[in-house]
Amino acid sequence: MNKAERIRFLDALRALLGASHVLSEAHDLAPYATDWRKRYHGKPMAVAMPGDTAQVAEVVQLCATHRVPIVPQGGNTGLVGGATTDASGTELLLSLRRMNRIRDLSTADGVLVAEAGCVLAAVQQAADGAGMLFPLSLAAEGSATVGGVLSTNAGGTAVLRYGNARSLCLGLEVVTPQGQIWNGLSALRKDNTGYDLRDLFIGAEGTLGLITAASLQLFARPAARRTAMALVAHAQDAVDLLQQARGALGAGLTGFELMSAHSLQLVQRHFPRLRLPLELSSPWCVLLELSDNEGEAHAQARLEAVLGLAMEQGRVVDAAVAQTLAQAQAMWALREHIPLAQAQEGLNIKHDIAVPISRMAAFVESTAELVTQALPGARLVVFGHLGDGNLHYNVQAPLGGDAADFLARHQDACNRIVHDAAAACGGSFSAEHGVGQLKLDDLLRYKSPVAVAMMRAIKAALDPQGLMNPGKVLRP
């Protein structure tokens, strides 16, 4: 696109959306041009901010006519560079933040319809205001948007009980790469009428079309919640405690997080106001959450019974049960501040792996040995959702070392060690963060050629011009 064509395109874009909703000056583009981890620095041609689905469709049609690539962005909280343009200045960044309305909420159907730019915390609040629960919860819920969490099929802390974003979505509204609007919003739990188009777009990271709204499943709000922290000596003890808690608590067990002592020590160092309820006398800590339909006393008794038995059996070293909502929130704050503490500590090598729970302890022990042998002095910051087999197996530079140099010299080798180990256990190199730009090579390495060929066929069929979030998930 030459300069004259670019001017005509931007003029047409301003005519569609209004000049105030098309950003093209460098200082206006800056907040949208860099990803959350500050790893990728793009250069958008412009930022377009449509206010409704019809405007999204018109923008896509305009881009298709001028062959302008589109990179969708919600809250820009992704961790793999999936919502950042390249540096060519030829891609349009399409921000969905203005599309932030709750369109409908039906307690009878247990469904809430939210637009793609609606922040996750706003969905939770709307459900709570209606006496119901939307259970998807993650550290970035104050800025992550519905479209973003669906496009990456985000997980969060309650997957054990409620499933990931895909499980919580009943239907979608999508603008296709041709600028057509597919109204697949549904309140139905059963609809066996051909291909499941919804599932094509969930987890596709905007490479097949633009999610503009979603029908989200709501649940009855539990009568009580109880949260506890427990210290364990070995990763296998945590796995055994998970099975024991599942057997005793059933579907009431809504959260089960594993955190290394080192990860919590980082939180203490950088956020000293967050106090640990237990002295870190063991290398591992577990965070449990129970949702109960009877009441506070019943929930307390059930959780204490599980932990008491586990302590008698020597599976748990020590434990603390939150007595108030404030204490429970403080426990969760420790878990949620681990990524922030890592960022304060310096650059680090992040991994978002999934491994069968039955092989988790073996993975943790063997991979720790492999990484520390290859990278002497490296600090392992291991935490995540043990209940669904998803760990953030992160590697921090040696204490006092040059973090940027460590990252530049060792990231590829470290990734290979961790991802090979996960694959050997029947696991995945990406559990909930997606592929984006960061893991393009990993997808080709670990996905079967048959799977990659089918993905390419779907991409070519739906987006023959290759304009939807190019360079993400699949290499061109």
Automatic annotation (TrEMBL):
Residues 40-221 form the FAD-binding PCMH-type domain. GO terms for biological process: respiratory electron transport chain. The keyword Flavoprotein applies. It comes from the Bacteria. InterPro entries: FAD-bd_oxidored_4_C, FAD-bd_PCMH, FAD-bd_PCMH-like_sf, FAD-bd_PCMH_sub1, FAD-bd_PCMH_sub2, FAD-linked_Oxase-like_C, FAD-oxidored/transferase_4, Oxid_FAD_bind_N. GO terms for molecular function: catalytic activity; FAD binding. Its cofactor is FAD. Gene3D superfamilies: 3.30.465.10, 3.30.70.2190, 3.30.70.2740, Uridine Diphospho-n-acetylenolpyruvylglucosamine Reductase, domain 2, Vanillyl-alcohol Oxidase, Chain A, domain 4. Keywords: FAD, Flavoprotein. Belongs to the FAD-binding oxidoreductase/transferase type 4 family. This is Putative D-lactate dehydrogenase.
